[in-house]
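Problem 12. The chain below contains 233 residues. Write out its predicted structure in token notation.
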Amino acid sequence: MSKELCFCHQEFECIVREILSIHDRPLTDADVAAITELDCSNFSFCAEDIDALSCFKGLRDLTININADDLSFLQRMSQLESLDIECWSLKEGLDLRALSHLHRLRYLFISGGDISDMDILHTEALVGLRELESLGFHEFGTVDLQPLGQMSWLKSFLCGWANSVKHVEAIGMLQNLKELTLIYLAMKDLDFLDTLPSDMELELCSLGVEKGIPYEKLKRFYKGNFDEIDKYP
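Solution.
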């Protein structure tokens, strides 16, 4: 039996009704289960609507700006292939273990919002996502990149605007990278670039490198963009 959905945020309900072209009756979980793409980035998604969102079991593409304490609601969305999520109110950090079952995921972009101190926790949970091709961490506190050493299938990686990045050398294990973007980060050196393919598209901007910028090494990346690479405060 279908369950009638209750929406706390009017804008969320309006978006769903427009997608389904249903305006004359209450919406049910059976209705929304047919939706494959949902963009909720234009407003702050409230936690009170998570129960309704959990019924979108057929989603393949989700973009969302959410005020929530955890991502456990994503465990019902096993069909997800693309997830772009901004979590801006988490106090304990963002636990990625809730994503470990999303085996169809190809694109994952995580942001903590403007000037966020949100830590990204348990990156090892992503190691089992063998379909994941593009990964991005943006605007956050601390992240441990060591698990990237076990994710050689990644083709694109972005990391930017972080307070602290641990085990940045693991990036050097990504032998299949086509794109690498590093923005506004502090690190000891860029030695990990030595093992990456020269035909990779490399973008470096506003980096604080303790040992200095190895400009000679960067010349082999002919698809590189190094504007203001050392403009780090």
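Discussion. The two ends are 59 Å apart (CA to CA). Students who got a different answer should revisit the alignment rule from Section 12.3.
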